[in-house]
Write a structure and sequence with these properties.
The complex is a heterodimer. Chain A is an all-alpha fold. Chain A is built from 14 helices and three strands. Classes of the chains: A mainly alpha, B alpha+beta. Chain B: Pfam families: Fer4_11.
Chain lengths: ~375, ~200
Amino acid sequence: MSEHQQAAVRARRRWRSMIWSIVAIFVLAVALPSAGYLFAQTTTGEPQRQFSEQSESNPRSDMWRDGRRGEGGFTTQTGPYVTNQMMTNVGENYRQIRTGPVTTLGGWFLVIVFLAITAFFLLTGQKKIEGGRSGQTIVRWQAYERFLHWFTAISFIILAITGLSLLFGRTVLIPIFGHQGFAAYAQLAYGTHNVVGPVFSVGVLMMIVLWVRHNIPNKTDLEWFKQGGGIVGNKHPSAGKMNGGEKVWFWGGVFALGLTVIITGFIALFPNWGFQTREIMSWSLIIHAVAATLWIGLFLGHAYIGTLGTEGALEGMTRGRVDTAWAKQHHDLWYQDVVASGEKPVPEEELRSDGKQASPGGSRPAGQQGS
Amino acid sequence: MARMKFLCDAERCIECQACVTACKNEHEVPWGVNRRRVIVMNDGQPGEKAISVACMHCTDAPCAAVCPVDCFYTTADGIVLHDKDLCIGCGYCFYACPFGAPQYPQQTAFGVRGKMDKCTFCAGGPETAHSQEELTKYGTNRVEEGKLPLCAEMCATKALIAGDGNVIADIYRKRVMTRGGRPQTWGWQAAYGQDV
């Protein structure tokens, strides 16, 4: 082996030992401090102590915990309002929600909706019939439909006033009338609300059944919504007998909120049915109040558009006939259908000169109303 | 001024119903209306416990908070009373109360309940003390005579104690110290707040 070869072997060996030393240093630097765990593990090899008396439940404390959560017990007392629970937290939720968001947010919601509608009216004014009235009228609502509408509307308003009085009376009316004056009124409002409620429900259910055929959503509504219903500006999106907005009022208001209010209302109104626990009752009352508040908000919009907001709209629900110019402007597709079905518009003068105020229900066959 | 409270010692209550009977008899409470009731937990099992429950006269009373006609008031002694002339019988207080204390003479269709009735801590109502009106509407007024609620005074084992919160808490504390075991001031946290 030459001198040169020996030097190369030495150099390689030096490198190898250097690398292995570095690896060993790293491995041991990590492993050695952990050796303590290994030691501990092997020296305490005996079975770990089981803290069974803590992990097992204590029947006494379980009983009190369940009792506080509303677990029922046994009681010999009888009566419609006797509960077998020593306490329950249901009421606390009811209290917090009712005196909290329902009265505060609900109250401000109605105030803001009212102010927004007022501001909108002041800014834009009434939506006039473009080009004026034509003087020709066609039938929009039959007599029985108008009766149903006003029957439901009047009971709605009675329920809204009495219901809002009970919800906000303590905040708003007691400072004005005093406790005794308000209590006398509240007793009357409570009784009225409870009797008119079921009567109103009949109206709402009949509306749903009778008017659902006018309110089936279609492509025209999509276009109507895209153009914002023509509420702002001078656009007049097409619409059948019911436009997109009216369908929202039908499905969102009369159908969804209406049924919610009716169901929760009946639950609250007939405690004698017996299935209503305090939990069911308090949640029904909360849902009833929230749905009714939203519905009243929507109603303010509906009432505005139907009366002050649109020239020529209200007469469709009062005398049942609307001006053809109004029909073309707001419900063009429906107008075309009515004309196509062969109905002849009747001039205003004829209606007035006719002493008996030509009842649309009587003078026209009912079948013409379908659209 | 005293702060009146009820405390029911579950280690002593033997479910004899004397408090219930005393209350009904003292105030001529109508049938079906129960100002006080005894509830037995784990009835018939080892470790069963009986508790006498009535209006606890809460510090921040939920019934008063939800009442639409604001007919509740708290006396200087911390007793929660209500005015039956204002009550419209809507039932809200019954749904808000943690203890199921408010009672009504009726449960009929169209939400007719009649005027709410509940434990008065034997302190009558807003009418003139010891008047016929007070007697018919709210029952007798023992507090006015310097007496404590009859249910507690009748209690044979002194499980149900009534009176100033500090005094009855002291009595109960002595009992727990003597007999050992854990204190069980049932319902106090819900009725009188976190710091009792």
